[in-house]
# Entry
Amino acid sequence: MNPADQRSDLTDLRDRVRHFSDERDWRRFHTPKNLAMALSVEVAELVEHFQWLPTGADHELDDAARIGIRHEMADVLVYLIQLADHTGVDLHQAVLEKLELNARKYPVQQARGSARKYTAYNETGTTGEPDQINN
# Structure
C-alpha cells in the first residue's frame, strides 16, 4: 500500500467517526482533555486482555480474547483519530516525522537487535540533542 492510500484510509475513518459523532451530537463533549482521558481508558482495557499471560502471543489467546482485543484496538484508534482531528494533527505526517526522529536516535548499526533506549548509545543520544519526543 502506498502512503497516499494510507492517508486516505485515515481520512476516511476520520470522516466516518465525525459523521457518527455528529449524528449523536457528541462532538461537543469531545474536548482534547476528554478524548485523551478516554484514550487512556481504552488502552487500559486493551492491556487487560494480556494481563497475566506469559507473553500475549497468539497461541495464548482464545477466540473471545481475540475479539475483545480487536474491539479495544478499534476503540483506541477511534479516540486517537478524534483527538488528532480536534487538535489539528495529521496522523500520517506525525508518524513519518516520528519515524525520522527515531531513525536518527536509533541508527541501524547501533540499535539492530538491541532493546536499549537511545541514551544508552552515548550520553546525549545519537542526535546530539536531548530527548525531544518520548518513545
